[in-house]
Amino acid sequence: MQQQQPARCALRAFLLVRRLAGRVRDAPGRRHGSNLNQPLSGNDCPRPGGIATFMRLPYAASAHGLDVAVYGVPFDCGTSNRSGARFGPRQVRCESSLLRPHNMATRAAPYDSLQVADVGDVPVTMYDAQRAMGDIERFVRGLLSHSCVPVGIGGDHTTTYPVLRAIKEKHGPVGLLHLDAHADVNPTMMHCEVAHGTPFYRAVQEGLLDTRRVVQIGLRGSVYGPNEERWSLQHGFHIIQAQECWFKSMVPIMETKVLPVLGAGPVYISFDIDCLDPAFAPGTGTPEIGGLTSAQALEVIRSCKGLNIVGADLVEVSPPYDTSGNTALTAANLLFEMICVLPGVKNLE
């Protein structure tokens, strides 16, 4: 009997690998009922094992047949301070193995409602920022050609700019819910137009946003001068500074100041992890004290249920400064919460 034990273990390992391979190969074809893709359970494979996709969902080589496509952008060449966000997509995916498929608080069941898969990373160049923007835009345009919702893992905030270019081609100018410590509306940084502090200036200049439906939450810290906020307000942005959120639930703020502005039109959500206080998310390139708590972030995202969300991203996780892994884990949770509020997600009965 003892001699048979290694053979049994080997057989079980072989069957598990074959099962995982089947999940990858068959992902695009699963559309209805039990055929919807499910994250690999920790009861079927230990959490450190399996393929490191988001929540260990199947990998899909194409967005064909998907309702939601999760993708990574391993790019941080627009970073002005602490680099490392290029490693964000991989680390967020690794930490996401801790998550389970149903939302206990909201009862959302996204993987019982929508066909979701991880479509891998944008093959983005690290050597030419302008060319990198084209790489990202083409990749996301390809996802949108299949009429799915793209959910991105950054990467620095530069990466949102080309995504919005692709989104506009599909949906026209969109409303924006932007959570960040910084406004990211600089015309240039070090005389360069493409950087993580310029995406929303570029987006306004190119008509990518419906500026009457832009809300920025969490802005704080020191600035170069009054022009940042003045420019945003002149273009119709609605700003909720972090100090307006201190010691408060975000639910009333969302109900009175945010949701009425975003309205019924298409909305893009862009969450810079430095919106959170460094106590909750230290692993980021430009941390600012006095930010939102992780609980407030949950309130913000959960309040978005019912919006016409056409895309989302979470950016600026820098694993080299995230020694505990908690920043990436928080990011993974927030991405899951974003998927939970997408149109078409049903609740558990």
Description:
This protein has 349 residues and is an alpha/beta fold. The chain has a single domain, classed as Arginase, Chain A. The chain is 32% helix and 15% strand. The protein is built from nine helices and eight strands. The protein has helices at residues 4-26, 88-95, 129-144, 160-171, 199-205, 227-234, 250-262, 294-302, 326-340; strands at 68-73, 116-121, 149-154, 174-179, 209-219, 238-241, 266-272, 308-315. Strands 2-1-3-8-7-4-5-6 form an eight-stranded parallel beta sheet, sandwiched between helices. Helix 8 links the parallel strand 7 and strand 8 (308-315). Helix 2 crosses helix 9 and helix 8 (294-302) packs parallel to helix 9. The longest helix has 23 residues, at 4-26. The radius of gyration is 20 Å and the shape is globular. Mn(2+) binds at residues 157, 180, 182, 184, 272, 274. This is Agmatinase.
